[in-house]
UniProtKB/TrEMBL annotation:
<keyword id="KW-0963">Cytoplasm</keyword>
<dbReference type="InterPro" id="IPR033690">
    <property type="entry name" value="Adenylat_kinase_CS"/>
</dbReference>
<feature type="region of interest" description="NMPbind">
    <location>
        <begin position="96"/>
        <end position="126"/>
    </location>
</feature>
<dbReference type="GO" id="GO:0036430">
    <property type="term" value="F:CMP kinase activity"/>
</dbReference>
<dbReference type="GO" id="GO:0005737">
    <property type="term" value="C:cytoplasm"/>
</dbReference>
<keyword id="KW-0418">Kinase</keyword>
<feature type="binding site">
    <location>
        <position position="241"/>
    </location>
    <ligand>
        <name>ATP</name>
    </ligand>
</feature>
<dbReference type="Pfam" id="PF00406">
    <property type="entry name" value="ADK"/>
</dbReference>
<feature type="binding site">
    <location>
        <begin position="124"/>
        <end position="126"/>
    </location>
    <ligand>
        <name>a ribonucleoside 5'-phosphate</name>
    </ligand>
</feature>
<feature type="binding site">
    <location>
        <position position="213"/>
    </location>
    <ligand>
        <name>a ribonucleoside 5'-phosphate</name>
    </ligand>
</feature>
<protein>
    <recommendedName>
        <fullName>UMP-CMP kinase</fullName>
        <ecNumber>2.7.4.14</ecNumber>
    </recommendedName>
</protein>
<feature type="region of interest" description="LID">
    <location>
        <begin position="195"/>
        <end position="205"/>
    </location>
</feature>
<comment type="function">
    <text>Catalyzes the phosphorylation of pyrimidine nucleoside monophosphates at the expense of ATP. Plays an important role in de novo pyrimidine nucleotide biosynthesis. Has preference for UMP and CMP as phosphate acceptors.</text>
</comment>
<dbReference type="GO" id="GO:0006221">
    <property type="term" value="P:pyrimidine nucleotide biosynthetic process"/>
</dbReference>
<feature type="binding site">
    <location>
        <position position="202"/>
    </location>
    <ligand>
        <name>a ribonucleoside 5'-phosphate</name>
    </ligand>
</feature>
<feature type="binding site">
    <location>
        <position position="196"/>
    </location>
    <ligand>
        <name>ATP</name>
    </ligand>
</feature>
<keyword id="KW-0665">Pyrimidine biosynthesis</keyword>
Length: 258
């Protein structure tokens, strides 16, 4: 298949793949030698240089197009918990856009740590160039190391810029199965996040950041869900119940997939 990460660094993933990974949540920690050069260079004026939305260069598996399910919903709707259950039951690999960004932010020597932290803390969406590069590094590494080509992409795309960046470079290279949308009230999600914040250590699990995150979700992400609804790709789940009850509905959806 055609190449998929950093044209200027065609062999970057082959250089970094050292160990096989299980079919589970993938983050930057699993490949500490990730080279910042595959990401766009920062600018003192805009925070990011204008470059193609997703720098590609390595190859996907010869098995066929990777199968992708986007997982969307407001913060605290249980996306991560349900993804963990889907991984165990159906063998998908869970790619959390938020986890990848947080791990890159915390990676020693990252050129983008401060930029990522500023966006996360203020409830803004990180530029698509960074998110897309991290997602694709994780997808390629998983396929190369394990052969697993089924992915849950959690928390992406979150706005029009994300959608365009993905569509321009990835739409013809993956099989989009559907969008899994977890619907839950702001009040309930906020309570869940504040409870999680007591032990998560996340800088955005607080009342001030949550308000900003919900505003971002309503102003930006809801439009993406409506876009996929128009394409009849959205599978909606009521996420107000407990995790096990919600997963019973999730299992029905995934059981229908070939």
């Amino acid at each position: 298949m055609t190449s998929v990460i950093a044209r200027s660094a065609k062999s970057v993933l082959h250089h970094h793949i050292k160990h096989g990974l299980p079919a589970t949540r993938i983050g930057v920690k699993q490949y500490a030698n990730f080279r910042p050069s595959v990401l766009p260079q920062a600018s003192s004026v805009t925070g990011i240089r204008s470059v193609p939305a997703c720098p590609f260069g390595t190859k996907f598996s010869v098995m066929g197009k990777p199968k992708v399910v986007f997982v969307l919903g407001p913060p605290g709707s249980g996306k991560g918990t349900q993804c963990e259950k889907i991984v165990k039951e159906f063998g998908y690999t869970h790619l959390s856009a938020g986890d990848l960004l947080r791990e890159e932010r915390n990676r020693e020597g990252s050129e983008y740590g401060a930029l990522i932290e500023d966006n996360i803390k203020n409830g803004r969406i990180v530029p698509v160039e960074i998110t897309c590069a991290l997602l694709e590094n994780a997808m390629n590494k998983t396929i190369q190391a394990t052969g697993n080509d089924r992915f849950l992409i959690d928390g992406f795309p979150r706005n029009e810029d994300n959608l365009q960046g993905w569509t321009n470079k990835m739409a013809d290279k993956v099989e989009q199965q559907f969008v899994l949308f977890f619907e839950c009230s702001e009040q309930q999600c906020t309570e869940r996040c504040l409870k999680r914040g007591e032990s998560s250590g996340r800088s955005d699990d607080n009342a001030e950041s949550l308000k900003k995150r919900f505003n971002t979700y309503i102003n930006d992400t809801v439009a993406i869900i409506k876009h996929y609804e128009a394409l009849q790709l959205v599978k909606k789940i009521d996420a107000s119940a407990g995790p096990d009850a919600v997963f019973e509905h999730v299992k029905t959806l995934f059981g229908e997939q070939k």
